[in-house]
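## retry 2 of 3
previous attempt timed out at serialization; input unchanged, resubmitting
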Amino acid sequence: MRTRKVIKTNIHTVECNTPLSGLIRARIMLVALLSLCFLLVFTPKSFGKAQTEMYEKGMKLSNKELKQRSNRYIYNKVNIDSALVYLSVVANRFYTDNQTSEDVKYSLGAMNDLGYIYFYFYYDYQKSYNYLSRALAESKKINDVEGMAYINLNLGNLYVTIFSIYNSPSMTTEALNTYKEAFRCALESKNWHTMQIIFSNMYNLAADIKKFDLIAEEINTYKKLKFDDDIPMVSYNRLMLKGFEALNRKDYKAALACFEPMAQSANSKLTPERDIVSALGQQAHIYSLMGNNDMAISKLYEARAIILAHNLKDYKVGCDKELYEYYTNIGKKDSAAKYRMEYLQARDSVVMLGKLHSVEELYFQNNLQNMNEEVRVMAQQRKLQSVITVLVAVIALVVIVFLVVIIIKNRQLKANHKKLFLQMEEVLRNDELIRQNRKEMQGRIRELETQIEETQQPKPKAQKYQNSNLDEEEKKDIYSKVCAVMEDSSAICKEGFTLKTLAEITGISYVRISQVINETAGKNFNTLLNEYRIKEACRRLVDYDNYGNLTIEGIAISIGFKSRTNFVATFKRITGLTPLEYQKLSKEQNNR
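## retry succeeded, writing output
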């Protein structure tokens, strides 16, 4: 998509400060102000409402469908407002999540088309620049070379128009550099159709400012390329090149022979009438160089008729300015004054029209912003809901896994506790049997021990008691007496029962008792005492007839422990279970 620069000859601009100029400007501004008031009062509500409804419908269509519809409107130059709405939908989707690479290109293409529409149809150059510059910046990020060719072309056209209407010379350099970048992108992407339009606009601008040297590389590249004849604008550009080459040689007849058939070769898809006007403008310029001002003016009138027929407001600015300058140069002041007023009116009309359209769309744009904000908020809410859903699912899964692990671990722990309980029960039963049979078997044990001692080497004494004079028989006798006392719960469960107490009961030195316990049992007195006390605790925990009225703390005190904490810790270390777990397992076992 593109627009072309306004026609311009090489006749210098002549300012004419007539007394009428202030009155003319005042009249133009009054008409524009009245138009603006009318538009503010009668237009925005219905205009904005219709576009808003169309926007809501467009939200339900795909990017491809919206682009196809907007293209039809643009090519046929009808329902441009509808094209604007559809393209706004596509462009705004660029800022939503989950955009595919194809969707991104659609959105950037829509920004480019919006820039084209605001420039070509609404003359709102600020808004056009905003869309085009944004599209170019985003296209560079994804290296969309073909898209950058279109965008740079439209930006170049915008700069040329600003130069023509506002007399801003700095824009010519910017426009030429932008066209050159567009040419490079078209060459890289092999977009030959777009290249024809880019080259035509670039070459015409270089001709106007007489800077062919700045595009010498592009001209040589273009001449070397082989294009199919059926590509639009190929014949037009070939005639243009030959025409300017003849013009540089001052062969005006040969130049005319090229520029005159250019009108029939203007076959671009969107703006053939602009290409025809440009060709007529060049013919007028050549006739002026030949001194035939009548023919020059005739060609400008011919171009002006096409401009008016197609309502090319920006081109009318340039054409009226050319007529004003021609008539000034040949001394026809009345005609010069007429077209100067036409030129000023056309220029201010374009400027004001852009402002009017901005006001006209203010209501619609506000609605679009509100709708876009609603869409953005809804998208964020959906995204947040998705995140929350996923998070809840993950948490639920973690909780389920955690519960399963806990259940499995609990079952394993329960099985392990049961195993420990059964082992402890077995230990207690064995201790009871040993206690009952100890006295009966004492004599027999002594005989067996004597026989064993006769057949085995005596064990070496421990280093700790290497100076002790106890023999093995004495040790066994002492340990037997120790065990007899330790099995007497009424003795060991008294608070303050110590090694010294044990020595007093047995009548044996506590030093010898300590030696025997360490060497025979492999542990110290306190450990042995705690083991016997915990065994007694196990008996009392399950003896509900005699001890059912005692708490865990009461049982702990009853067997000689001063605190519940110390008792529970000792019980857990020896049995692998807490007192409550042991009691619970006992109940479960008895209920079976």
